[in-house]
Design a protein that fits this description.
This protein is an alpha/beta fold. Helices cover about 25% and strands about 20% of the residues. The protein has a 4-stranded mixed sheet, with helices on one face. Strands 11-12-13-14 form a 4-stranded mixed sheet. Its cofactor is Mg(2+).
């Protein structure tokens, strides 16, 4: 920087795929090279004092803006001589359509932001487009139509994700009866939430439920888990798809919609999503089920707190629990004696699946719902322990769900 201006044409090479480095200052070495701490190398030139005294000036055509920026100033769109604009490594959620005013721009870097869509004003004039694309582009609202066309004709060449590395907590003792079973937890994304506006980066055909349901069932069959917990299951799809399909595979299951279903007519109730639990009938049998409705819990617990009622009660998330009895088929230990089998067969297993509120702006609601879940679940454990004449600490519990939270958050 010289006199508050960016000097000369700057070339950068990102070695790490990260964001741009810090601005260069006059006190740095004027050797034209600098390697920043984040691995970025840049070549630059700063005017000497003699050049400044001779009246020489710079003509800068490139600009970078960084520092976790969330919004861009309208003044930026007046700098029409820019040929390169580097906005990478920020927190941008949208690109204003006014960017079309930068008519000389040939390089635009928007990597490592939080963008879900791009403005249709990003022009394609003067490019050797194919006849098909060129025809769409020159139609009314052509840019917008072209983006949708490219989305829907996106080539599927992405490799499948790598196999997960399993973490062994401890090895089973061959001389002790150990219940061994697999668990699958899956938010299947209810059809009414899979909108083009919400998932603008995804082809419309891939959002279509008729396409997705086949992929979902294929994945469920592939894992063949002993216990399956699902979130965002539409009421009608539980009845028409999940329950009959999984029954043919040897599963039993339960389902409950979100609390709002109680206030709806029969037709609208079909499209309310909820939680479901399935288990292999040969390995488990259900003793009872238990529903946790956070709206009802908060009314009982916070009747004197108007703020908590206003924040938490409108969110009708639920948690669904199944108290299962473990069958002998779960124990793979062939050396287990008849006496040992009599002691462990019929042991309870509490399975819980929960769907915590989604909105990232309502972290307090997420935390309160998680606290209510833990409290209500422990009450259920006490009831189960008393029924089976064991302690709550001896009652195995399996908590699954979509917590809409990061691993290091307070909810987890």
């Amino acid at each position: 920087m010289q006199n508050g201006e960016l000097n000369g044409s700057e070339e950068y090479k990102d070695k790490q795929g990260g964001g741009a480095g810090l601005p260069l200052t006059k006190v740095e070495n004027n050797d034209g090279k600098k390697v920043l701490t984040n691995g970025m190398s840049r070549v630059h030139r700063i005017l000497s004092e003699d050049e400044i005294n001779q009246g020489k000036t710079t003509r800068w055509t490139e600009l970078e803006i960084h520092g976790r920026v969330r919004n861009l100033s309208n003044a930026l769109w007046q700098v029409s001589h820019l040929s390169a604009l580097f906005l990478n490594g920020n927190q941008l959620t949208r690109v204003p359509p006014e960017i079309s005013q930068l008519t000389n721009l040939t390089m635009l870097d928007l990597s490592h932001n939080k963008l879900r869509s791009l403005p249709a004003e990003l022009g394609l004039q003067g490019n050797p487009l194919s006849p098909e694309i060129n025809k769409i582009y020159h139609e009314s609202n052509g840019s917008h139509k072209l983006l949708h066309f490219l989305h829907d004709h996106l080539a599927i060449n992405t490799a499948p994700p790598p196999e997960r590395e399993w973490v062994m907590i401890r090895h089973a003792d061959p001389d002790r009866p150990i219940a061994t079973f697999t668990v699958l937890c899956y938010n299947v994304l209810c059809d009414k939430y899979a909108t083009v506006n919400q998932y603008s980066y995804c082809p419309s055909w891939a959002l279509n439920w008729e396409y997705r349901k086949m992929s979902i069932m294929k994945e469920i069959r592939n894992y063949e888990a002993d216990i399956i917990t699902l979130q965002e299951v539409e009421t009608e799809q539980f009845r028409l798809l999940f329950q009959p399909e999984l029954k043919m595979l040897g599963y039993s299951g339960i389902f409950s919609p979100k609390s709002r279903a109680k206030t709806m007519n029969e037709e609208d109730r079909k499209y309310v999503d909820g939680c479901a639990i399935f288990w292999k009938s040969e390995k488990f049998e259900m003793d009872r089920e238990h529903l946790i409705e956070f709206t009802q819990v908060v009314v009982k617990k916070a009747s004197t707190s108007e703020h908590m009622l206003n924040r938490v009660m409108p969110r009708d998330n639920i948690a669904l629990c199944a108290v299962l009895r473990i069958k002998e088929n779960v124990y793979n230990n062939r050396r287990m004696t008849m006496a040992a089998a009599d002691n462990v067969v019929g042991t309870p297993l509490v399975v819980c699946t929960a769907h915590i509120h989604w909105d990232p702006e309502l972290c307090d609601v997420k935390l309160i719902q998680t606290m209510m879940l833990a409290h209500e679940l422990y009450k259920l454990l006490e009831e189960v322990a008393e029924q089976f004449r064991i302690t709550p600490q001896q009652t195995p519990v399996l908590i699954c769900g979509d917590l809409n939270s990061l691993p290091d958050s307070g909810m987890v």
